[in-house]
């Protein structure tokens, strides 16, 4: 072939590769230690170590470069329609360094790279005894495109990081071309029940309540149940409906209350047991590090043994709403590292396996809004893996308007986008693990009627649990009143709709 034509086709091939969204391009073949990556849709390029693999499977959230020792994660945040901007993003994202006990900062400064303002932070923590190949060395760079757009380079490694600035200096912002590829659908695959060691009774629960043909079943959180069932029985009599599921919360200050579990079982109730790895009056700033160093091994083994002693099916919801900064187990407090949440989940899961627990269905349950609403805190990044999850839980409340900035949102508006998102993401059964409506800011009875009128539009939701409690403000005043028995009007609207529900041959 003529040399001119050869040169032309070589250039054409390179241009075609550049235009392909998220495709790696070799910088200089085997003679280079770096390869070039171009993300046309997000509008950037950078060099990454050539030995690393590129994973753009969830490119809407992040791009990942990795080998056995190191991960490089790239995030893009757009704050045009939010209360945040680039500066608040940088400050809020890095609040975890206030925990100087666990995080040793090597440097924390702002510089300029290619005329762009860049905040760089480097830190490390101690190795965790129970995490294989623990990546405890960190670096992040927030590259400000403008006051509303930020790129983040996040690096973590099992070894000290030395090439961070080479990667940052190679980062170039360019004009976006094309669209970001959609995430795989479903991203969360269905587990095969036969592959898990489940008791026959637990398999029956999975089939009865969470199969494709299961109709909607109702549950409730009533604060005194299942310790005592008196109040719950009064509510059930008033609304003419028996709830099939109860929520029982627990934390690291108590063990499994087997007698309470028996109270529920004796009245035909199934439990959604929620373990939140926290304490009520103890500093929890190191809780994940403590768990992954084995400090809670004895406690967790006994916890599993007590569930086994109970012997009947339990929905086990571990560390729910983890993408909310009100939870001490959010990655907001642990180096922005969502993998630590997954490590804790898998660690506890394997403890249950060692104790041969066969009466537990694992429920993974983020909040509908990530707070902070940054890409590195996206709920998908907390997902521990298909083999560790049986049911995906949805949680969205109409919080009302007690606090500044909140708004009244009807049920359909609240759940339509959430349902569509998780129906596309997950092949697993869906449930509303807890929800409710405040009475401050609107007509609660009307909200409940909207809920009953629309919930059948979400047929993959198989169980829904009303949270009949109250959130209090810092002065002890009721801020969010979700109680089902708040007044006669609320009780009546539930009774009327439950009567319609009970008379239907097919549930919602």
TrEMBL record:
Record keyword Hydrolase present: yes
InterPro entries, alphabetized: GH, GH26_dom, Glyco_hydro_26
Signal peptide positions on this chain: 1-29
Active site per database record: 321 (proton donor), 434 (nucleophile)
Molecular function as annotated in GO: mannan endo-1,4-beta-mannosidase activity
Keywords, alphabetical: Glycosidase, Hydrolase, Signal
Gene3D superfamilies (UniProt xref): Glycosidases
Domain GH26: 200-494
Top-level taxon: Bacteria
Swiss-Prot/TrEMBL GO biological process terms: substituted mannan metabolic process
Similarity comment text for this entry: Belongs to the glycosyl hydrolase 26 family.
Protein name: GH26 domain-containing protein
Species in which this protein is naturally found: Schinkia azotoformans LMG 9581
Source organism phylogeny: Bacteria, Bacillati, Bacillota, Bacilli, Bacillales
